[in-house]
UniProtKB/TrEMBL annotation:
Contains at least one intrachain disulfide bond essential for its enzymatic activity. PROSITE patterns: GH16_2. It is found in: Secreted, Cell wall; Secreted, Extracellular space, Apoplast. The lineage of its organism: Eukaryota, Viridiplantae, Streptophyta, Embryophyta, Tracheophyta. This is Xyloglucan endotransglucosylase/hydrolase. Residues 320-340 are annotated as: Disordered. Residues 26-227 form the GH16 domain.
Length: 340
């Protein structure tokens, strides 16, 4: 009995400690820009709606077209961020993406870092996918997928990508949710060339929701994704091709970024990241032994975590805290923005 009470007491202390750690996480505080200062329309011009102060942009997908914008410059490393509000209600087949890429200028050996938001049928949550490609490694997708611990359609939440020569970190609000450290084994699979930043909404009926079972239904359109708090911190480079990290200015800017609160991975951040992943990750390429019989060397395979995942890389149903995904439904196949 005493042992049991002690256990409960310990759990309470642990929970309290977790709350304290969460509270201690520093808020991301970066300079934001107006659309015109950092971005330019990419496609579906009529479906890009800019607010009067030019600090909020809405991208529409309707029967005629999706839409998108891209950064006016390319960047060699940096911190790229937007607060996004996703379309609500019935969004099957709709994909919203916020990502970095140089696929437009370097076709065969392009780099890419993705946040992809996969729409869903009514009552089912959006899922978020992150991915990393380097030097055209599109046959080696490094997808992870998560459910969000909030409704991303009711208010804005910040999604950020930190890319340095040392690591890539994806953030949701102030919480790092994924860190890919550069290891020698990754060789060219670690993105290394200047990239542009993109935001898009488009019709991915063929795969986005339950492997294409649910297509976009335009009776629920137009689908509106809004972007604000646009932040682009990094070294701008003019000529995209061939211009590798060489200028002292770029190196100095990156050194400053690496030393800043954004990039330093504190113990609190590591703990918050672990908690987010324990509670919300539903797929990881690191546990997908069907696709990759030998895990990539950069995978930090945690035995206690691995047991929660099937050989397909998907979280076992028993571990799905919120049973919001349909049992037995086939997950969307791993995706690449190259499919666009
Ligand atoms: C954010 O950063 C700016 C400039 O560095 C600073 O003046 C401001 O006080 C900060 N805000 C918060 C809430 O920390
Ligand atoms: C990228 O790929 C090209 C062509 O496959 C290869 O020649 C080059 O060495 C690779 N670069 C890196 C950094 O791995």
């Amino acid at each position: 009995m005493a042992g049991r009470r002690l256990l409960v007491a310990t759990a309470v202390v642990a929970a309290a400690a977790a709350v304290v750690a969460a509270a201690a996480l520093e808020a991301i505080n970066v300079t934001t820009v107006a659309f015109e200062e950092g971005y330019t329309p990419l496609f579906g011009f009529d479906n890009i709606l800019r607010s009067a102060d030019d600090r909020t942009v809405s991208l529409l997908l309707d029967r005629s077209t999706g839409s998108g914008f891209m950064s006016s410059s390319m960047y060699q490393h940096g911190f790229f961020s937007a607060s996004i509000k996703l379309p609500s209600d019935y969004t099957a087949g709709v994909v919203v993406a916020f990502y970095t890429s140089n696929g437009d200028v370097i076709e065969k050996r392009h780099d890419e870092l993705d946040f992809e938001f996969l729409g869903n049928i009514r009552g089912k949550p959006w899922r978020v996918q992150t991915n990393v490609y380097g030097n055209g490694s599109v046959s080696r997708g490094r997808e992870e997928r998560y459910l969000l611990p909030f409704d991303p359609t009711t208010e804005f939440h910040r999604y950020s990508i930190l890319w340095t020569r040392a690591a890539i970190v994806f953030f949701v609000d102030d919480v790092p949710i994924r860190e890919v450290r550069r290891t020698p084994a990754m060789t060219g699979d670690f993105p290394s060339k200047p990239m542009s930043i993109y935001a898009t909404v488009w019709d991915a009926s063929t795969w986005a929701t339950s492997g294409g079972r649910y297509r976009v239904n335009y009776r629920y359109g137009p689908f509106v994704a809004s972007f604000t708090d646009l932040a682009l911190l990094g070294c701008r480079v003019g000529d995209p091709i061939g211009q590798m990290l060489s200028s002292a200015a770029c190196t100095a800017a990156e050194d400053a970024l690496l030393a800043s609160d954004l990039a330093v991975m504190t113990l609190e951040k590591q703990q918050a990241m672990r908690r987010f992943r324990e509670q919300n990750m539903v797929y990881s390429y690191c546990y997908d032994t069907l696709r990759y019989p030998a895990p990539f060397l950069e995978c930090d395979v945690v035995e206690s975590e691995r047991r929660r995942f099937k050989g397909s890389g998907h979280l076992r149903l028993a571990f799905r805290r919120r049973r919001r995904t349909r049992p037995g439904s086939r997950p969307a196949r791993p995706t690449r923005a190259a499919d666009m």
